[in-house]
């Protein structure tokens, strides 16, 4: 309830928000690309291994939200939602990062991908203790795995996860809290 209230408050405050740019040659629908009015705050294209993504840098000292989508996640299909999430993060001084999954990924490939995302962000100047993971549906598995791999993380947020992630969450909390 508190999160929903905060999101509502953020939306109310966002009346002067501008849509971020999807800079570079990413996305199938180039006509939908728009430019941030402040060039310091652009959603930049980035690549982890062979997977494309976008990264919005945080204001100094603030964490970066690393979003993992569900099983059918496609940045191009959810471009509008990604813009909205990036705008909300930007307005709070937070960073935002999102990446495609490897094609036909299994559990091992997803784990390797998540490890690569953590390392890539660290190489881009986002320390492990400033990475906060958010996962929707299957992305909950990715976010939980990221938090397990990076116990220094700034946070973990799971949305509509499926039962095996709930069990992993219980087990992970049990391990973390004793």
Task: Give your account of this protein's structure.
The protein has 178 residues and is an alpha/beta fold. Helices cover 38% and strands 18% of the residues. It has five helices and six strands. Strands 1-2-4-3-5-6 form a six-stranded mixed sheet, sandwiched between helices. Strand 3, helix 2 (79-91) and strand 4 form a beta-alpha-beta unit. Helix 3 (107-123) crosses helix 4 and helix 4 (139-149) runs parallel beside helix 5. The two termini are 28 Å apart.
Per DSSP E runs of 2 or more residues, the count of β-strands stands at: 6
Structural class: alpha/beta
Identify the quaternary structure here. single chain
Radius of gyration, in angstroms, nearest whole number: 16 Å
With strands numbered from the N-terminus, the spatial order across the biggest sheet is: 1-2-4-3-5-6
Beta-strand share of residues: 15-25%
Mean pLDDT: 75
What series of H and E elements makes up the topology? HEEEHEHEHEH
Which runs of at least 5 residues are low in confidence (pLDDT < 50)?
Answer: 14-39
Calculate the terminal CA-CA distance, rounded to whole Å. Answer: 28 Å
* Sheet of most strands: 6 strands, mixed
Helix fraction by DSSP (H/I, runs of at least 4): 25-40%
Shape summary? globular
Number of helices: 5
Question: Notable features of this structure?
Answer:
178 residues, alpha/beta, 38% helix
Write the layout of secondary structure elements.
Elements (H helix, E strand, L loop, with lengths): L1 H12 L30 E5 L2 E6 L7 E5 L10 H13 L3 E5 L7 H17 L7 E6 L2 H11 L5 E5 L3 H15 L1
Helix pairs in contact: 3-4, 4-5
């Amino acid at each position: 309830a508190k999160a929903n209230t905060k999101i509502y408050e953020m939306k109310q405050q966002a009346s002067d928000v501008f849509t971020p740019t999807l800079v570079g040659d990413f996305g199938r629908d180039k006509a939908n690309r728009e430019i941030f009015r402040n060039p310091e705050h652009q959603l930049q294209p980035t690549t982890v291994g062979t997977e494309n993504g976008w990264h919005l840098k945080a204001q100094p000292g603030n964490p970066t939200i690393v979003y993992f989508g569900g099983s059918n996640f496609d940045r191009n299909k959810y471009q509008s939602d990604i813009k909205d999430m990036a705008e909300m993060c930007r307005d709070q001084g937070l960073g935002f990062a999102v990446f495609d999954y490897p094609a036909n990924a299994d559990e091992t490939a997803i784990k390797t991908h998540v490890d690569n995302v953590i390392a890539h962000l660290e190489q881009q100047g986002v320390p492990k203790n400033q990475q906060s993971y958010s996962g929707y549906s299957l992305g909950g598995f990715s976010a939980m795995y990221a938090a397990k791999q990076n116990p220094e993380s700034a946070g973990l947020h799971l949305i509509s996860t499926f039962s095996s992630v709930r069990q992993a969450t219980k087990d992970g909390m049990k391990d973390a809290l004793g």
